[in-house]
Amino acid sequence: MATIWGVHNDQPQLDLVGNGFVSIGWDDLGDLSDLKDDREEAKDRVARGLPDLKPGAVPVTAGTLLSFRHRMQVGDLVIYPYKPDSTVNFGRITGDYHFRAGASLHASRRPVEWLRTGVPRTTFSQSARYEIGSAVTVFQVKRHRQEFLDFLQGLPASAASAAAGAEPEAAADEAAEQPDAERIETYTHDFVIDTLMKELEGVEFEHFVAHLLGAMGYRTEVTSPSRDGGYDVIASHDPLLLKPPIIKVQCKRTTSSIGRPEVQQLTGALAAGGSELGLFVTLGSYSADAQHEERHRQNLRLINGRQLVKLIFEHYDKFSLEYKRLLPLRPVYVVDRTVS
């Protein structure tokens, strides 16, 4: 029975999906092809090759290397959460470990056939999302294995969770269970997206976006549904909404991917000459062709779900009591082991 692995990658420029692979860092350790399936040898190699690594991180890193080099097998499934737009990608390992000489980043790689890509995180249960938010780079998905398998097979989500396959290294496994700043941030992000999706209707979401823009210092007005000509909100720094630039805002309360045709409906509503700007706001993500449209237009900005949540955090203190009750949040201090 195929094992399901989770792989985190903090180098989006590698385009793992487009290039068909997963990878890990620690390039200073060189080619891992000669690394034996031995815990003590792996720990010794990490300690010698990464002398600045904290002692407590040595066994965790060694366990990650062993999982990627030896535990992963051809035919195993892999889950790759993509943080920039809060989506999840599913693939199948199609080849053995190899070291790509000359690669500037993440030379340790495994080829992958991607099966499903750009899946909104909110497709899955909160506890499943928490599991794939593991604090380590490579980890085995156990508790919610069946939920992810059911999704890939097109079946309804299963409430059952199953643990199967080989255990990863004990130290890495233990580290994966520990709460950290990134996991807490991800949990809060999911809470905000889930709440906005479940508690607000389309027009209510438009009013929420208008309120957020107001907290950012803009004067806003929600258009009448009968007057919706490709946009839902207009915004400006001018109190009368007369002086350019006028921002026309399209709001989509969805966690699905927004494509280029929907974005072009907004750009088609903009006056020529730079007097009007377009802002598209969604709870989900954007397709590659939609992002291409943004890159080639100076008068267009796309805000995805993760960026929207970041803006909410930044301007939350200016929210009305109504929206603070909708999204009850407070700042806290959490452990952040990434600080050096």
Q: How is the biggest beta sheet arranged?
A: 7 strands, mixed
What integer value in Å does the Rg equal?
Answer: 23 Å
What structural category arises from helix and sheet content?
A: alpha/beta
Which residues sit in consecutive blocks of at least 5 with pLDDT less than 50? 159-172
* Overall mean confidence score, pLDDT: 90
Q: Fraction of residues in helices?
A: 25-40%
**In angstroms, what separates the terminal alpha carbons?**
40 Å
Description:
This protein is of the alpha/beta class and 340 residues long. It has two domains: 4-178, ph1033 like fold, CATH 3.10.590; 193-326, Trna Endonuclease, Chain: A, domain 1 (3-Layer(aba) Sandwich). It is 34% helix and 20% strand. The protein is built from twelve helices and 14 strands. Strands 1, 2, 3, 4, 5, 6 and 7 form a seven-stranded mixed β-sheet that branches. A five-stranded mixed β-sheet has the order 8-9-10-12-14, sandwiched between helices. A two-stranded parallel sheet has the order 11-13. The longest helix is centred in the middle third of the chain and has 19 residues, at 181-199. The protein is elongated, with a radius of gyration of 23 Å. It starts with a strand and ends in a 14-residue tail after the last helix. 36% of the residues are buried. Residues 159-172 have low confidence and may be disordered.
